[in-house]
Amino acid sequence: MKPWWHRWMRTPAELREMGIVGINMRNGRFVLPNNPRRLYDLVDNKVRTKSLATARGISVPETYGVVANPGDVRAFERMLDGRESFVIKPTRGSGGKGVLVVAGREDGLYYKPSGSRLTAGDVRHHLQNILAGLYSLGGKRDTALVEYKVTAEPTMTSISFQGAPDIRIVLFHGYPVLAMLRASTRESDGRSNLHQGALGIGVDICSGRTVHAVHHGRPIDKHPDLKVPVVGVQVPEWDRILDIAVTCYEMTGLGYLGVDLMIDQDRGPLMIEVNARPGLAIQLANGVGLLKRLEPIDAQARAHPHETAEQRIAFSTKTFAPASTR
């Protein structure tokens, strides 16, 4: 019997064979050559990203207000205009840091999806931390975005504990590469952050059906809290989701990017944010190395530099479809 570590640890040669992309390769071969520095602010500033998306006809969560100074912090409740639920996030945050989700209000208290309570003072303190740059890229002073809280489509809530799952799609030269769902758990406190214990669930680019899932890097078939299957679930409106993701590539001009979306039960797919440095956990979620897909896409883009959005989607869905469906 092979020792336990053989299942989880891989040699450099094995990782190369699997097509695994590490952070140095990601930056050196894909991010730096294809993402001009001048374009980063288009996606690092969430307010600007939402403005660009709206101009392109992409649906985004409604903005209730922007908290930019201490006076706004004191008066933040006026932005809510009686709304019971909302999301606060740093304008220049990354990795889900500093995001506060409020699911309801009652008797002057604010309730997170987990049921834990916050006072108005707690919320103001969180806003002050955002303004101080506690969660921003580079630790610089920031502003806070207050926006609509997505009410997740029922299929999505069925595989996520309390919080609404989001969808990450990585694109290269405008071609969809890999996709995953990030579903929350009790451990992650309703957040879709893999490092905090959320699930990474791989999604087949061709069909929008979940095909693989991991929790803390280890394969699973069922949600650890809900005990429901997380593999074989059909993501609704998949064609529209792919179209939004490819439009974000055209909107930003970034050659290598990640697009995050959520599916609202009434408004359908909404673009949440765009990332110029998407993380690498999507490989674990799918059980597929990025290099296995980035290299064919690079060759296709060089050979056919003027393909339309429809042609790029068609290439990815045909090339990366499961062998059994080709």
From TrEMBL:
Keywords: ATP-binding, Nucleotide-binding
Keyword Endoplasmic reticulum listed: no
Signal peptide stretch: none
Residue stretches making up the ATP-grasp domain: 50-305
InterPro entries with a match to the protein in the record: ATP-grasp, RimK-rel_E_lig, RimK-rel_E_lig_ATP-grasp
UniProt keyword Mitochondrion, yes or no: no
Pfam families in the cross-refs: ATPgrasp_ST
NCBIfam families in UniProt: rimK_rel_E_lig (TIGR02291)
PANTHER family assigned: BETA-CITRYLGLUTAMATE SYNTHASE B-RELATED, RIBOSOMAL PROTEIN S6 MODIFICATION PROTEIN
This protein's name: ATP-grasp domain-containing protein
Organism, as annotated: Haloferula sargassicola
